[in-house]
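User: Teach me something about this protein's shape.
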Amino acid sequence: MIKVGDTLPATTLMEYSEVEGEGCSIGPNAVDIAKATAGKTIALFALPGAFTPTCSAKHVPGYVERAADFKAAGVDEIWCVSVNDAFVMGAWARAQKTGTKVRMLADGSGEFAKATGLTLDLTGRGMGVRSNRYSALVKDGKVATLNVEAPGKFEVSDANTLLAQARG
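Assistant: First, the predicted structure itself:
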C-alpha cells in the first residue's frame, strides 16, 4: 500500500471535458499523473463509485464547498478519483456542480487503484474491484499525508480533515 513519502504511481487517469481548453479536446482526455502533479500541491480524494450514496451526499460536496479554503491553504487543485469511466465521471461532475473546483478523474480499469494498493473488492455487491475511500495531500507528486478509511466508513477522508492537514 502506498504510504507517506511515496511518489504517486506513474499511471494515466482520464478526464471528460465538455468544452475545448488549452491542449484539451472535448471528450475524454488523458491525465498523466507525473506531469499533472509536478510542482503542484494536490488535494486528492478517492472513493468507490460515482453516484453512490455517501460519495454523492457527503464526500464530493464537502470538497466543492471548501474549494476556496483549499486554494487559500496553498492547494493548486482538488482531484476526485474513482474506478468509473470518463463519461460517468463527466456526468457526475455535472450533477455535483463541481465546475472548476474539483477535477473528476476516471480510473476506468482500476490501474491507479491497483498501483496504490488501495483497492476495495465489492464484487459481492456487483460492483467489482473499486478504489478504497481515502484522501491524500500530494506535493510535487509525493504523498505528504494519507487518510485511509476503514471499510464502510467515512470518518477521515472528508474535506475538513484534509483541509486541516493542508493548513499544517
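Now, about its shape. Residues 12-167 form a domain with the Glutaredoxin fold (CATH 3.40.30.10). The chain has a mean pLDDT of 93. If you'd like, I can walk through any region in more detail.
User: That's plenty for now, thanks!
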